[in-house]
Fold this protein.
Amino acid sequence: MKRIVLIGMPNTGKSTFFNRLTGASSRTGNWPGVTVDLLAAKILVGTEMVEVVDLPGIYDLHGFSDDEGVVRQFLENNPVELVCLVLNSTQLDHQLGLAVQVGRLGLNCVLLLNMSDEAQHLGVRVDTDKMAAELGFPVVLLSARRGHGFPRAKELMTSALAGAAPCSLLALRRQLGGDDAVARQTETLLERTVVMPVVLERLTTERLDRVLLHPWLGLPLFFGFMFLVFQAVYTLGAPLQDGVAWVLDEVRGFALQPLQAVLPHAVYGLLVDGIYDGVATVASFVPVIILFFFLMAVVEDTGYLSRAAFLTDALMARFGLDGRGFVMLLMGFGCNVPALMGTRVMRSRALRLLSMLVIPFSLCSARLQVFLFLTTALFTPHQAPLVLFSLYMVSFAAALGSAALVGRRLTNNEPFVLELPPYRLPSLRQVMLRGWHEVRHFLHRASNFIIAGVVLVWLLTHYPVAIPPGGPASLAGMLGHWLSPVLDPIGIGAQMAVVLVFGFVAKEIVLGSLVAMTGLQGDALVSYLGHQMDWVQAYSFMLFVLLYTPCLSTVATLRSESRSWSYTAFSVSWALGLAWVASFAFYQTARALGY
Amino acid sequence: MPTQNLSNLGVGERAVIRDIAAEETVRKRMYAMGLRAGREALVMRRGRLGGPLQVRVGSITLVVRRRDAARVEVVSLG
């Protein structure tokens, strides 16, 4: 099958073009020599089925960033019949050099000058015929968002593909030639084929920036927007999540529970309590992920995400993070999983790994639920809000402190230069496709891992057979007992230790497991806990729950996003270590002070 | 004419980029982002509390940390 690759700089609308070309049919996949997943789709061009691969946005074919390495490795390891080069017509002075580079490599190419509607509005004029003649490949004006020029683009792609021979490149960097030669050729080409006004008047963007990047108003407005996004994810997401849980519960009741009579006890337990509940846990994340990415796509596509980075960078740079990391950290207070996936907007791997290390410290909604219950159970109505507030502060401190401690080792000398695109209205189609892709990605990556984890915990709490689940005689109970030398110094008893084992899967089941183990509910459970733990133990337990690890879905996401088991192991051990140290310091200090 | 660096320019000040004083990889990266010798840069905003600069170079607008802006040698045009 013939192969087309899309190449272009970030913020050129390359993905919009890809989506218009392929619809929702694309999926992620692996290619030889390339270490990241790329989006690809099979589509009909003319009468031929071809594979279209969306390569990461790059500035330069021989640059040193991760993304540029990926593009180079792809071209060096995979034969390509056609390159679709997407450039932003409003920035040809910056971008045309990439076309010259592609031309020098002798690749079969079609040049798509995207955002041509915007460029025309700004007074940019391009002589496409002359440009095509100089470059030696077809050039077409396009608006991927509105579809102008799209049929013509497809026509040109069809004819360029007919009879095209596969081309693979060896040692691309050597073939490119020197920067100076490329720069000279680009200057000449620009002079001959493009007319650009001296100053591009972006009146709307400048007016908006005067308010949104205002020295005093900028930050409060940013926090206001974040609050709204956060509220939207919750107020819309929570009922949806409950809805999904309800449906899955109904299915369990009607379709699966009758199997109890037919299947052997252990098989039923494993299938339904283990695997089915695991699938249900994964499924319950779907509504939040969809919502989160709808809103993130809006924040990103409008151009506001880069502004947020500008506003918060002064603070975050001190901790080795950047402004975008801060946005994701805030989003993590809703749910850590999409926040981790959202770090993909960062181009530097070191920065991204550091951001992913600190996001799991964000006090997410599932943990909040546990804390709300415990604070009401063990503190007076006056104390409870303060206790909760202190946990939020600990969450921030753990995130920023970890970044400061680990950051020195991870970060590099890479310059922090970020493009500030003009404000644009996001297209609905683009926003929907984004949410859809992310959910599919999450389901694809996370499900096996999570199901395996859920089954493991099920075995721990239900084996040996015929004992109360999670009781002292179960494997989990024994584990709790073995852990006592570690957990006693932080005031966590054997029973609560088992709860921590459950909590590793998901914080949502922490309360459920307490109910199951004690056989108590509501007020009875509250007063039982009040007798079991004093406030020092309870606070130590909450500190541990806050920091040790959010849930199995987060760990699975860490693994799939970092593509590194050792990084995942490091992240989990860092969190566990920090949790223990924090709880130990608190518990021992409080006891020493006589509480 | 005295050479300055981009990080000392005031808001609204224009300058021509002379050189990027950094090692090869950093220089390449900044070049790719549009910070190239011979181009004219305009400082549009300076972030508060040591925050980054907002700089316009040709048709694009960039956010540049002060540390990195300090590596960009420029000649002010006022």
Notes: The first strand of chain A starts at residue 2 and ends at 8. The interface with chain B takes residues 59-60, 62-65, 90-94, 179, 183, 196, 200, 209, 213, 215, 306, 309-311, 313-315, 317, 413-422 of chain A (CB under 8 Å). The CA atoms of residues 28 and 595 of chain A lie 55 Å apart. The beta strands of chain A are 2-8, 27-29, 38-45, 48-54, 82-88, 109-114, 125-126, 139-141, 194-195, 417-419.
